[in-house]
Amino acid sequence: MNEVDISKNISEYRKRNELTIKELANLTGVTPSLLSQIEKGTANPSINTLKQISSALEVPLFNFFISDVPTEELVVRKENRKKIMFAEDDSFAYELLTPNSKGEIEFMLMKIPSKGSSSKEAFSHKGEEVAYIVEGEVRLYLGNSVIDLRSGDSVKIPPHSEHKWENINDNDCEVIFAVTPPSF
Fold first, then answer.
1. Measured between alpha carbons, how far is 38 from 7 in angstroms, rounded to an integer?
2. CATH class of 73-180
3. Looking at the whole model, is its pTM more than 0.85?
4. For residue 47, what are the contacts with CB-CB under 8 A and spacing of at least 6?
5. What is the Cα 68 distance to its own chain's centre?
6. Is the dihedral of CA 147, 174, 184, 85 positive or negative?
7. Where in the chain is the domain with CATH 1.10.260.40?
């Protein structure tokens, strides 16, 4: 986990708003010397002081506690994707397109071989899902409905909706989908 530098974050937000320390002091009621010490990391602001600063800078308070994520942690190379295989059918796979499942959304590639399916039985999960058919044709069992989809189509699956994917053709099928919140 990355260390959070509140002082750096406050300074960056102040500069984005094109404010001097003195101008921010006037907006917050905090002395310029205390603001300077906070930005240098030599003074620790109270929660009330942080609230005043966040209000003046028009940013949510929690933004001061967010650290930058190194760019290399944001990229998933094709050859480094995490694969989720199921014992019942090792030809069927999910590939995680997001670096991990720790964020607010999960993005995956589902590969369904000819005549294969995502599961034996329909299943549900707490997340809302949106899927896009990249290649092939697929049948979606969604609740009591049966929906045939082909390349270029997309579908939204509400949270807690039982569903199952099935490739009814002779060619492989690829579906990209996003789930929020993550459920794998």
1. 6
2. mainly beta
3. no
4. none
5. 15
6. positive
7. 6-65
Count of Cβ atoms closer than 10 Å to residue 147 Cβ: 12
CA-nearest of 13, 7, 66 to 39 is 7
- pLDDT value at position 162? 95
Q: Could you give the CA distance from residue 87 to residue 104 in angstroms, rounded to a whole number?
A: 28
> 69 in helix, strand or coil?
coil
Q: Is the predicted pLDDT of residue 14 greater than 60, yes or no?
A: yes
Q: For all residues of the chain together, what is the average pLDDT?
A: 89
Is omega for the bond preceding 45 within 30 degrees of 0, making it cis? no
Distance between CA atoms of 10 and 18, rounded to whole angstroms?
A: 12
Portions of the chain given CATH number 2.60.120.10: 73-180
What are the pLDDT digits (tens) for 91-116?
Answer: 678 899 988 777 788 899 999 999 98
Asked which of 6-15, 38-47, 71-80 is least confident by mean pLDDT, the reply is: 71-80
CATH tag, 6-65? 1.10.260.40
For residue 1, name the pLDDT band (cuts at 50, 70, 90): very low
What's the pLDDT at 86?
A: 64
Instruction: Give the burial string for 61-94 (b: 16+ CB within 10 Å, else e).
Output: eeebeeeeeeeeeeebeeeebeeeeeeeeeebbb
